[in-house]
Amino acid sequence: MTDILPAPDIARTALAPLVAHALNDELALHVFATAAWSHLAEPGDGVAGRIVGALGPATALHEVVTGGRDGAARNAAELTAQQWKDAVARWRPRWNQRAVLDNLDVARIARIRLLTPEDDRWPAALADLGVHAPLCLWVRGDPGALSLPSPRAAIVGARAATAYGEHVAAELAGELVARGVIVVSGAAYGIDGVAHRVALAAGGVTAALLAGGVERPYPTGHADLIGRIAATGAVASEVPPGSAPTRWRFLQRNRLIAALSEATVVVEAGWRSGSLNTAGHAAALGRPIGAVPGPVTSAASAGCHRLLREFDARCITSADDVLELLGVPTGSTSWLPQTLFDMPDSTGRTDDSTRISDAMSVQSWRRTEDIARRAGMSADDTSAILGLLEIEGVVHRGEAGWRRAPAPRRP
Questions:
Q1: What is the DSSP string of 124-188?
Q2: If you average pLDDT over every residue of the chain, what do you get?
Q3: What are the residue boundaries of the DprA winged helix domain, all occurrences included (predicted)?
């Protein structure tokens, strides 16, 4: 395994500024391999969760890089031959020991912390995600803010929020933090931003989960806000520094918001809002969900009304309603996520085609292998999906590779 992992002293030196616990040789290589997996596997990859859970991160990494031809790793993780083949095809091209070491140095310079399950501050609630739980978290600020014993509520909603939605979000966030609740959200424009800002203004603790690297604030217009969140709470992501936020990663980020929170409240949401995706994940975990009603004529509240009408969400009209959600035992609502968090995006595309599209550029041509590596998928699957997207006119093929078609101009 020494040909895959760095020498223990190199790993320990690179990791020491990023972790709070002492590192012996074995633990240093274990944590290094855990960090490496956040470079190899895309968020929510259940196959990665199974193999790492079965073998440990270091052995699992070695088996993937070497190909695991004897089948022992595949059998231990209870994977089919095809699952193993596909996994190796999408992970191995991303492996680069030097890149992981360089990334750890970037984290050190940016004062980013690496949180792994071995750390006492690891949020135990993430275990409810099973094999889809993150293998590690990259954190700006105080990692301990993610596991404080205080109750946590997610406040999420539309980016294009109305004055009504922003007012309600502000009222809820202010009253909740005054009663010791930690506000969790995604730092987006609209409802998320209001919830974070008011929580900070009220002297409370708030945590933001990002879809890209924590050292590159997104949206950029919230760079100052994200910095303020990190100063008193935590900004976290499961993808390493330097990672770009993509549509796929936003959807997977939503499961972390839901898992870290004991209840999820949707303040405003259109019919296909990403907030419904977060609510679906919360319901899959058996967490209660609430929705704020709006004017029946408001498209910005159509998603909230759908949650109330079709999915048994609690009607939220005050902070007391949210506190009741946080204190009431939840039942299993496994039927909800099958129609919520698995919903296609507004383009009607599947998760895989979304990942392929995110991995492409409008300006430059990219080879199939490059697109596959960026998307974290096998070259065969990527090629097949590219063909379908070409038929739809979403992508163009040329001698130099593939390029995403520009979005049509609105009249």
A1: GGGGGGGGGS-S-EEEEE-GGGGS-SS-EEEEE--SS--HHHHHHHHHHHHHHHHTTPEEEE---
A2: 89
A3: 346-398
Mean pLDDT of 8-27: 95
Q: Which of 275, 293, 327 is the last residue of a domain?
A: 327
Domain boundary among 74, 108, 142: 108
Task: Tell me the sheet residues that pair with 200.
Answer: none
Q: How many CB atoms lie within 10 A of CB 153?
A: 26
User: In this structure, what token pair is assigned to residue 39?
Assistant: 């470079």
What sign has the CA pseudo-torsion 164, 169, 171, 172? positive
Give a yes or no: residue 255 inside a domain: yes
State the CATH number of the domain containing residue 366. Answer: 1.10.10.10
pLDDT score recorded for residue 2: 52
- For 281-306, the pLDDT digits (tens) are 999 999 999 999 998 888 999 999 99
In a domain, 156, yes or no: yes
pLDDT 10s digits, 40-74:
999 999 999 999 999 999 999 999 998 877 678 88
| Average pLDDT score over residue span 137-162 | 95
